[in-house]
Write a structure and sequence with these properties.
- The chain is an alpha/beta fold.
- Among the domains are: 37 residues, no CATH class; 243 residues, Rossmann fold, CATH 3.40.50.
- Helices cover 34% and strands 9% of the residues.
- The protein contains 17 helices and 8 strands.
- It has an 8-stranded mixed β-sheet, with helices on both faces.
- α15 links the parallel β7 and β8.
- α7 packs across α17 and α8 packs across α17.
- It is elongated and about 150 Å long.
- The termini are far apart.
- The N terminus is likely disordered.
- InterPro entries: CobQ/CobB/MinD/ParA_Nub-bd_dom, P-loop_NTPase, ParA/MinD_ATPase.
- This is CobQ/CobB/MinD/ParA nucleotide binding domain-containing protein.
- It holds the Pfam family CbiA.
- It comes from Leifsonella bigeumensis.
Length: 431
């Protein structure tokens, strides 16, 4: 039987039949045979994404970051914040003794975090507010640092010398800030002639020369004190004038008209000069003077008399925040100073004794014949600290004290005494 072969690509003959006589379907026939729509359901397994811990650490909100395509309808800009997951710090128990620094760390303040409690004005420190970047260090003090700083055209700054740093540290101790009222420091002893008045003036000058606030020394000696004779007297007023004019003293200028001021800005209020009135200065009079001084001064030194049983002494000790006991370098002077401590302990002032400072005046007679170290060892077992006051011709004269012309060792001892006294004064106290 004969067959007819068609080459590839050759169109089929008209009539649409093949060699067997059957009609071959056209493309239109195949298209018309398909359904109009076709739906296929495909079920895929759910994708499970387990985020690692390092991804959770930088999660946005509570959900981990996942990759995905942004839909066409979600092209709006959205602000997000990255919150790192940090380990929670232990919460300190609330208490009255917690300061603002304990409630908010320095690092959190630098980040701009808001404190959980209202901040006090003391939190606005220069360290916190001033930008120290780009600022130059201050000019160094001291011979060698200053020379090197100048020789290198201000390129090498070693800072202050050790001696200058020690001086500034001592200044910072003397200039300690107080809150809540005046601090009262009586200077006393049972022995006369040991330099109590001189020590009072020296201590006051060392404080006033450094501190930026006001310091006053009150002569409360009912036996005609000589404290005002240690400075250039600028007034003839005494404590008696303050008592009689108390009602009319309403400002600091009114009060300063009754005191004498030396070059260190120490104010001195003289005692009664009339021997007929000296015994009249009693406890009530001292309280009037002390109340007025508390309105204008931060520290009030009181030069007490040699007697410790008169009424002025009782009023003085009731206000005292610390005491300075003056002792000479002889046997009887040291013994009487120690008996003063014993009397204070026996009369309920044990706290003042433990916080007391002993000023050992080594310029008195007999100092060269005794063992000063043994005297210091005795007082060191009873009080907080001891300071030796060396011999100085200007102090021995018993006249006006020019603080700047004192010997360097004398000034150093006075400054050390002032720093130790201020160290023992409370920073905060109810007015």
């Amino acid at each position: 039987m004969a067959t007819k072969t068609r080459k590839t690509g050759e169109p089929a003959p008209s009539g649409g039949s093949d060699a067997d006589g059957l009609a071959e379907p056209t493309a239109e026939d195949l298209t018309s045979a398909l359904p109009q729509s076709l739906t296929i359901d495909v079920t895929l397994p759910e994708q499970v994404h387990l985020a690692p811990e390092e991804e959770l650490a930088v999660a946005i909100g509570a959900a981990p970051v996942r990759a995905g395509r942004m839909l066409e309808d979600d092209r709006a800009t959205t602000s997000i914040s990255l919150i790192p997951v940090m380990p929670e710090a232990p919460v300190e128990p609330a208490g009255d003794d917690l300061s603002d620094d304990a409630l908010q760390s320095r690092r959190s303040r630098l980040r701009g975090d808001v404190s959980a409690t209202p901040e006090s004005a003391a939190m606005l420190t220069a360290e916190r507010l001033l930008d120290q970047r780009g600022t130059k260090r201050p000019r160094p003090e001291g011979a060698w640092p200053a020379f090197l700083y100048a020789a290198t055209l201000h390129l090498v700054n070693l800072g202050d010398s050790p001696r200058v740093r020690a001086r500034k540290a001592l200044d910072a101790r003397i200039d300690k800030r107080f809150e809540g009222g005046t601090r009262f420091v009586p200077v006393l002893t049972r022995k006369g002639g040991v330099g109590k008045t001189t020590i009072t003036a020296l201590l006051g000058m060392a404080m006033a020369d450094v501190r930026e606030d006001r310091v006053i020394a009150i002569d409360a000696n009912p036996d005609r004190g000589t404290l005002a004779e240690r400075v250039n007297k600028q007034t003839r007023a005494t404590v008696r004038d303050v008592v009689t004019r108390a009602a009319s003293i309403t400002s600091f200028s009114d009060f300063t008209a009754l005191v004498s001021r030396d070059e260190t800005r120490l104010d001195i209020l003289a005692s009664d000069t009339d021997p007929l009135l000296s015994e009249a200065f009693d406890e009530d009079d001292y309280n009037v003077v002390a109340d007025l001084a508390a309105r204008f001064y931060s520290i009030a030194l009181t030069d007490c008399g040699t007697g410790i049983v008169h009424s002025v002494m009782r009023a003085t000790l009731q206000r005292a925040d610390s005491v300075v006991i003056v002792s000479g370098g002889s046997v009887d002077e040291a013994r009487l100073a120690s008996e003063t401590l014993t009397w204070l302990e026996a009369n309920g002032y044990g706290d003042l004794v433990r916080n007391a400072i002993v000023a050992l005046n080594t310029a008195t007679q007999g100092t060269n014949l005794v063992k000063i170290d043994e005297i210091e060892a005795h007082f060191r077992s009873r009080v907080r600290e001891i300071v030796r006051i060396p011999y100085d011709p200007q102090l021995a004269a018993g006249s006006i004290v020019d603080y700047q012309r004192l010997r360097p060792l004398t000034i150093a001892s006075a400054r050390e005494l002032a720093a130790l006294v201020v160290d023992g004064l409370p920073v905060r106290r109810d007015a």
